[in-house]
Amino acid sequence: MDSGVAEGAGKVYIDGNMLAVKALAAAGVETMYGVVGIPVTSLATYAMKVGIKFIAFRNEQSAGYAASAAGFLTGKPGVLLTVSGPGCVHGLAGLSNAMINTWPLVMISGSCTQKDIGKGDFQELDQMEAVKPFVKYSGKASQISEVPEVVSKAFQVALEDQPGGTYIDLPSDVLHENISVEEAEKLLAGVKAAKPMFSRELECHCSESDIQEALSLLHKAEKPLVVFGKGAALSRAEGAIKQFVERSGIPFLATPMGKGVISDTHHLSAGAARSLALRESDVALVIGARLNWLLHFGEPPQWSDSVKFILVNTSKEEMELRRPAVKLVGDARMVMTDLNKQWKDSPFSLGDKHPWVEKLKNKASDSVEKMAARLKQDVVPFNFLTPLRIIRDAISSLGSPTPILVSEGANTMDIGRTVFQQLEPRTRLDAGTWGTMGIGMGYAIAAAVESPGRLVVAVEGDSGFGFSGFELETIVRYNLPIVVIIFNNDGVYGGDRRTPEDKEGPLKDFPAPTSFIPCARYDKVMEAFGGSGYFVKEPKELESAVNEAFASKKPALINVRIDPFAGSESGRMHHKN
Predict the structure, then answer these.
(1) Cα–Cα nearest to 78, from 47, 104, 97
(2) Which long-range contacts (CB under 8 A, 24 or more apart) does 147-150 make?
(3) Residue 474: its H or E element
(4) Does a cis peptide bond (omega within 30 degrees of 0) precede residue 39?
(5) Are 554 and 528 in contact (CB under 8 A)?
(6) How does DSSP classify residue 510?
(7) Cβ of 141: how many Cβ atoms within 10 Å?
(8) Single pTM value for the model
């Protein structure tokens, strides 16, 4: 059945591939990311026939990262398609990334013929067992009639409660089974469309008394603080959070991917006074963020040992682990909407002259002035700050809608976070909760596909870029408006930084574990695929390159030569390396 459709005995039949893509379309899928091969090539081809875009990658890991980012950006499950065996294993990178970041994703893998399981079939693997640590649900269609039900459940479960990954296993023999169109239509009628999280009436599991207790704590606090993370961005809680912050006058902080939920330039932003805000706050309302390493576990010395936490989170497990003063279990948008409703009954506001607000503003102003003085300097050979300033200014000049920024690398990402300003929600994608390197090109492609016409700027360390660099071909093939900017400092952290004492022994002349080819011409790789490449060493060269590349909104790569001794080993995580 080369077309997925055939006739026989007066009936029209479709095969498992066609039934699967019809089920995906019924579930609301518009785009899939993946790599084709045995046994799913026809599935991807038929997906295009029914109107589902298939974005074909060069590696399943990058495709998986793209699908996970798509879940974050759209509020609907991103979809990853892989081949069997090793393709499924490669796809686990994206599936686990979705799990740890609590983003909705559905991974679909072909698998070996069922009657040959245990015989050493082509790419045989117990894929249901392999995905188990990373999913909320896994379903295997053991016969063609089960395909629609498995598809429907995978999409619904990915969005329930705390979002995450689910898995669909489609054996090769099932994909080649046939079913009448009449019977298929009956089965497809039961597939539920997966609505975006922000368009669903999600439950708020907290009681009116919980909300009142939270408001009372914040009202009585001398140094209250609002902290929000990417969970708030995922739930589209920006309107409700901004309303609460501006009504209450409470200063706020964002985690890296929560930046932009409220603009970094807002007068109540305490981002430039982060250490002071954490250390001295006595009550912290934490919305859509976990008290993990990114927030120092909510523990001293970064936090006061007497701080009281009010946690807004979909995870009951997180509540039990952290044991906050008040647990507000539920979707951030719904909880904050309820908080705003009840705030009207007992309104309070700190006001601009409140000692806590003034203290944070003064500290933030002082930090901004010091950073501005450092950024003002043109340092050549480039440090990190000079090119970051030039890129920031070029982005700022574009106005709204602002480009989506993707960032990965040690120093490149860490220092960039303090320089780049996020003015709009869901415009920053980075290594996230796991600190995952290799996400850059996948995230950038997803951002461009899911936000048509919007410029995407991927600021990459040369090491981070190397994990997925061949996806440049994917970017050019689909003519995506992505500008990749590589901070090229010859390797991980900065190439060969070994001390004389480290350069001893029989392999002293062997390349250092952290070193790459000096001054590698990544720009030439982009040119080889048909995109625009730039190699820059001076401020004027970089200014010209970013302005030209941004204006064209075509695939481009700017290779920025950085002093290998700028920055530090492991960025801000040196104590762990």
Answers:
(1) 104
(2) 147/16, 147/19, 147/20, 147/23, 147/174, 147/187, 148/19, 148/23, 148/26, 148/184, 148/187, 148/188, 148/190, 148/191, 149/187, 149/190
(3) helix 472-477
(4) yes
(5) no
(6) S
(7) 24
(8) 0.96
Beta strands in 399-455 (DSSP E): 404-408, 428-429
Q: What is the pLDDT of residues 330-352, one digit of tens each?
A: 999 999 999 999 988 778 899 99
Give me the helix-helix angle, 411-419 and 385-396, nearest 10°. 50
Q: Tell me the DSSP string of 177-246.
A: -EEEHHHHHHHHTTPPP---GGGS---B---HHHHHHHHHHHHH-SSEEEEE-HHHHHTT-HHHHHHHHH
Cα 149 to Cα 3: distance, rounded to the nearest angstrom = 23
- Which two structure tokens, joined as six digits, stand for 430? 């980075």
| Residues 350, 508: Cα–Cα separation, whole Å | 62
pLDDT tens digits along 302-332: 999 999 999 999 988 888 888 899 999 999 9
Picking from 345-349, 506-510, 517-521, 530-534, which range would have the lowest pLDDT averaged per residue?
345-349
Tokens of 150: 């498995």
| Residue 574 pLDDT | 59
Measured at the CA of 78, the angle between CA 73 and CA 84, to 5 degrees, comes to 150
User: Residue 286 and residue 250: Cα distance in Å, rounded?
Assistant: 12
Cα separation, 181 vs 95, whole angstroms: 33
Return the structure tokens found at 466.
């190397």
Which residue type sits at 494? G
d(CA 414, CA 399): 24
Tell me whether residue 399 is exposed, middle or buried, using C-beta atoms within 10 angstroms of its C-beta: 0 to 12, 13 to 18, 19 or more: exposed
C-alpha to C-alpha distances, 59 to 10, 11, 66, 104, nearest whole angstrom: 43, 40, 11, 21
Query: What would the two tokens of residue 74 be?
Result: 């759209």
324, 300 Cβ separation under 8 angstroms: no
CA-closest candidate to residue 428, choices 447, 449, 451? 447
- Decide if 280 contacts 225 (C-beta within 8 A): no
CB 486 within 8 A of CB 458: no
- 248 with 375: CB under 8 angstroms? no
54 CB-near residues (< 8 Å, 6+ apart): 31, 32, 33, 34, 36, 44, 47, 48, 81
Give percent helix, percent strand, percent coil of the chain, each to the nearest 5.
45, 20, 40
286-306: average pLDDT? 96
Q: Which amino acid is located at 96 in the chain?
A: S
Residue 577, pLDDT score: 63
Q: How distant, in Å, are the alpha carbons of 20, 340, 557 from that of 479?
A: 29, 44, 13
At 284, the amino acid letter reads A
Amino acid at position 206, single letter:
C
Distance CA 62, CA 97 (A): 11
Instruction: Render pLDDT for 223-269 as a digit per residue (tens, 0 to 9).
Output: 999 999 999 999 999 999 999 999 999 999 999 999 999 999 999 99
* Tens-digit pLDDT profile for residues 144-161: 999 999 999 999 999 998
φ, ψ at 165 (rounded to 5°): -95, 150
Two structure tokens written together for 215: 């408001």
